[in-house]
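RETRY 2/3 - previous attempt timed out on the joint model. Re-submitting the same 666-residue input unchanged.
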Amino acid sequence: MASVTLDAVTFRYPGSRGETLEALSLLVPDQSTHALLGASGAGKTTVLNLLSGSLRPSSGRILLDGSDVSNLPSAQRNVTQVFQFPVLYPAMTVRENLQFPLRNRGWKRADAAARATEMARELDIEPLLESGLRVLTLFERQLVAIGRALVRPDVGLVLLDEPLTAVQPELKWQLRKALRKVQTDLGVTMIYVTHDQTEALTFAAEVSVMQGGRILQTGSPIDVHDKPSHDYVGFFIGSPGMNFLDIEVRQGRATLAGGPLLSTHAADGDYRIGFRAEWATLGTTGLPIQITGFRADGLIDDVPVGVVTAQSGSTRLHVRHRGDLPGTGVCLQVNKYLLFKEGRRVE
Amino acid sequence: MLELEALRLAEGARPIGHQFAEHAISVVLGANRSGKTLLCRCLAGLAQPMAGRMLLDGQDIGHLDVRSRPVAIVNQAFVNYPAWTVTDNIASPLIARGVSKTRRRHRVDDIAAKLGLEPFLRRFPHELSGGQQQRVAIGRALAKDARILVLDEPLVNLDYKLREALRDELRALLSQEDLTVIYTTTDPADAFSLGSEVLLFAEHSVLQSGSPIEVYRRPVSITAAALMSEPTVNRLDRPSCAWAIRPEHVRLERPVSDAAETFRLQVEEVETNGGHTFLHGNVDRQSWVVKLPGMVQLTIGATLPVYVRQQDIMSFESV
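RETRY 2/3 succeeded.
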């Protein structure tokens, strides 16, 4: 059992000028999956280190199940971690690795063995229990590392730091599936850190997008994809990221260089419109663009399907396209868009 | 033109014969440990092939030492001179060649402009992001004014978003240079977005080569089909052959105008990344993945009919 609350948590590394984390607030409900997504340096790992207890906040509070653990050492928190690469004892068998955290805490051999078997069954690695680590694949070793992290029955919160990095691409979903199964069966809370949006969106019920030590948006995968709160979220989520164009709104008309384009209820002013590659089409009317490339990612019904790259002035745009490329005089039609002002989405 | 003539990379490996497209990017696509890096190292003169020749315009370059080979190499680690500024890092091959200071400055400015490094010229590598550091390494390779540029998984250590942006830029950038580019990767998307041609690499040899779309359309084997597919192809054993079907060719609705095969998919997991939804499951006890556009809601555990157009089924001899 562990709900997680970050209450205005600020963190500054000793000697550094700016804050690494700025008044960060977040609520992760008990027994849920949450992903922290962002580029290197966004502050994701700092959040993990604060939760695990290897760092203390400069100000603000960290609550686990409602009680303040901000200044509690790691050993007194019911928190465990899974890393990029399986951290295990190479000279021990799978069973010995699984038992280790329990034996360390004074569990009797028979009890520890029983619990290890239980974990192995949960992760579908029971036949490997008496094997040495050397014969295991990286995938199996990562399962053992997960088992070892979760073997203590008092664990309520599991922190995962890019746990799929080392695993072959075609096995990643199986590891995600194993993680979600363990999460549901054992009723733990999982916080998953990654820079890979596919991993974040496919793993977690809720995603927080981080930038520069702040959380920009927390929402379901569909929300952060379709309704980004900031232009950065729109850019960071989705492959390709969201397109943006400067636009001027005058009396309910959004004008793009070239002529009236869209009608809107927004107040007069300068904005940016954001639209996904799937929300626009190539045509003969609309915004004149120059096509610079077409990356087909396959053939559907024998027709190439992929992403067209184009330029409008100095702005690079991506448009999902199907079929052959139109010739000259190509224009962009935006079929759906969001409006942003000073980096934030406006309704 | 760069040509490999009966080049044997390892004991027992099939010799490679290939003429690389000139002034174009050739993407070498293969799994880890398939010998891609060894090929790069042989081209650059950092390793010796077991047998065969590497010819540039008919001249054997295999005997030239690393420095005099017209080959520049960038690998996945961001290798720069840590104590030198960005300017000096890019200029280093020019300094080694004794190019005059004025001409050096022109060339460095030109390269920095192409790579978007102008604001960072006075900085040191450790003051740059990973993406910027890798740009500096590419800039130094360009300054070598080599005929051949070898990029060995140059984006693999970068953040996802940086990788996407740099891949977009690389194509435009490299097409301006008078270069034959060899680019290795494990990601089929790189082949589609960068490559004029793709060479599928397995067991230290070339399995198939051609334009990305041709290799996608007509793979020579299941291994070739799988290499050029992300996620990998779905397989099905038939009495006298093996079928491979790409995840994007499996659909939930029966095609209207084409004859189709029907399979029963037991859905084990549904995952989405916003743009696409992936169904993971089983058909005849074989693991399958279905890639659908957009977000699709489905019940896990359900068994449902899925359809594949007959012309989308790739049939191979059983192994």
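Chain B touches chain A through 41 residues (CB under 8 Å). Closing ticket.
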